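FAQ: What does a ligand-bound record look like?

Like this one, built around pantoate:
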Amino acid sequence: MSAFPIQTVHTLAELRQRVALWRARGERVGFVPTMGALHDGHLSLVEEARRRARRVMVSVFVNPTQFAAGEDFDRYPRTLAADVERLARVDADLCYAPAAEEIYPPGFSTAVTVGGPAVADLEDHFRPTHFSGVALVVAKLLNQADCDVAVFGEKDYQQLLVIRRLARDLDLRAEIVGAPTLREADGLAMSSRNIYLSKEERAVAPALHRALTEAARLIAEGEPIGHVMAGAREEIAAKGFVIDYLEARHAETLARVAFRHDGPIRLLVAAKLGATRLIDNVAVEAPR
Ligand code: PAF
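The answer part, i.e. the structure of the complex:
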């Protein structure tokens, strides 16, 4: 653990100054965009960035444009002081915590329209404006950060594909890297939203990952996809989840798959447990 607190900057001018200094020294710059409330999953993204770059910065910004009315923007946990402490433990070099006006100054009038993996009848069906907000802020942040590599979690799998597409389509300089989902000991995917779960819900929540991994195993063994997914849906619903989607999709295009040779396959789920919406995904092992 670093003995020193890491520096936090709040303005684009300060960020650019720091990054320009690193670049002038020929140092490779890594970047992890986050919305804060950092947990070990985020820290593993920082470590991944650290393996790929000499300098690592992390942004903490709860992006209003990716939340729809009625979602949890207002109650999303904001824990900057604790976040900065956690970042010091993994030797991040800089925290960028811009105010909303730094990202969306008065008069801001630009939107990003996303297609391809952003229109897959998964998250986009339930959160129709979400990915345009994500794409807008990620395009801005990557541009502001002027980084060589940016790391995103596979936990938000559709988001990762949307960001890869965005970076390619807009010729963003950064290499986009996906990092594996970090899990609690019982399999629950780490998420800043897990704190919304009651004690009883927290005990039930790992059933989501158990059902996914079992379905992935059966599909890899050659069981029919439709049958396996129907069984997984039934099992999760029986535990009290209200399912938004639980689907087998092509891992790169998110197209629907009927047979395991249509893959590589990813199983993706979003389901509500009480008032908390959980998402998760796992890969299906390729047929030999
Ligand atoms: O995954 C997240 O935390 C956010 O969607 C991101 C990529 C930081 C954009 O606000």
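Follow-up question: can I read anything off the structure? Yes, for example: Residues 130-145 form the longest helix (16 residues).
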